[in-house]
């Protein structure tokens, strides 16, 4: 079986980095240290220009009070020598203006596009363009459990499984959470290249022994090597919060298309 898939080999050949990567990367990812070494080789801030397609489904409430909203946003992200810039097309800007005008007539009018824009801030976008660094941090704050033989989208792979404890939460959340379970899974191919990762989190807590709540999250990322560095070509994130008086569920899907 070849060390790299046909698609990955062609991609690296176009960038002129195939030989260098094959010499630098470990032969396999049998331990977290091997994967961290691979990520070091894939952590770059080379110029890249992509189209980011984001779609959000959100539900609030329960029963007859349940409301669902769907919204999609297209942007162009450019990372150059001067930093990161985001281009918002006129159709998107027109939608934002329309929602602002709607509030003049009805202060309680829905503004789904406006409410969505915070999800496209720098902290949300930057990890998509240089995925090696945030993945490395997630691994370093986790405890390695085991390695299993697996497949990812029909391709032979190894799956590294990590456990995470409450230290991944902020101080305020740790005081509230009483039950916590979280795992990180990373799929790599035979050459040690990361293919995907999945983060699961389930937390239950109580405040003053009266207000009890539950939170679940699952985030899956599909990776691609582009010009010698790792990007997220697709991300899916599902979140659900259930506490008295507040019931929220969201599904965010984002896709990057190099331009």
Secondary-structure blueprint:
Blueprint: H1 6-15, H2 18-24, H3 32-41, E1 48-60, E2 67-80, E3 83-88, H4 90-105, H5 112-116, H6 122-129, H7 132-140, E4 143-152, E5 155-164, H8 171-176, E6 177-188, E7 194-207, E8 211-226, E9 229-243, E10 246-258
Antiparallel strand pairs: 1-2, 1-10, 2-3, 4-5, 5-6, 6-7, 7-8, 8-9, 9-10
Helix pairs in contact: 3-7
Task: Give an overview of the whole structure.
The protein has a 10-stranded antiparallel β-sheet. The chain is built from 8 helices and 10 strands. It is globular, with a radius of gyration of 21 Å. By secondary structure, it is an alpha+beta fold. Mean pLDDT is 84; it is low at 1-28.
Main sheet: strands, sense, barrel: 10 strands, antiparallel
Radius of gyration: 21 Å
Which strand order do you get reading across the main beta sheet? 3-2-1-10-9-8-7-6-5-4
Q: Which series of helices and strands comes N to C? A: HHHEEEHHHHEEHEEEEE
Mean pLDDT: 84
What portion of residues belong to β-strands?
over 45%
Low-confidence stretches at least 5 residues in length (pLDDT < 50)? 1-28
Oligomeric organization of the protein chains: single chain
